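request received
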Amino acid sequence: MTTKTSCADFVQFFRSWVSDPLRVAAVAPSGERLARLMTQEIEPLDGPILELGPGTGVFTRALLARGIPESALTLVEFGEEFAVRLRGRFPEARVVQMDAAQLGQCGFFDDAPFGAVVSGLPLLSMPPSKVTAIVGGAFETMKPGGAFYQFTYGPRCPVQKSILESLGLEGKRIGGTVRNIPPAGVYRISRQNPLELSIGGSKYRSTREGVGISGLMPEAGNADTGRPEANA
Ligand SMILES: C[S@@+](CC[C@H](N)C(=O)[O-])C[C@H]1O[C@@H](n2cnc3c(N)ncnc32)[C@H](O)[C@@H]1O
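response:
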């Protein structure tokens, strides 16, 4: 919890965790220091920004503090209780209540590719198929040079190496803080070959020959799009 996180936010977050611990995966909102680390490389010139799993909006506020216009933000949040509050708090942002695993399939984000993705999702305990759908889908919506920022409470990148490689991506730790409950590290995930991958338009393609993200995602009928799971 941060000094700027209100008591009401803390209470709501804690209640959400009690009612759905697997989805919320933390007992308190992220701290201000972590929010600054997560957003440190993002600039207003990057264009529209996508945030996944904003919760009470700690990273959203940090993005605004960096000069990103509220109208340039799209917030994808699965929890209705958070989505309602986010709409009231950030009226100019686009708030979409949906499972982030549907990003690559929903077609909502085709017109204006994002410059960066900031994710507070609990990726560590999601099954690999779901992580692949989320990260691959996010890169489908991003400009060639765009990056995906993710925090983790674990000691290494929360996206497995095999998933990164299958999607033509690489992960690099760009910071960490002990001034968070619990302490957390921040990773930047980016394309290994951004220019090569931009050939043929802004749509993401894997470096595996002939395999787009749709080929790496589970089939619609088998898609693991149910309840998200615990721990970032
Ligand atoms: C660990 S909390 C992080 C909240 C906030 N970003 C923070 O750092 O304080 C995880 C957030 O992701 C949301 N979430 C979990 N699974 C999701 C999914 N599949 N799609 C969209 N949001 C999801 C939860 O509702 C919750 O708001």
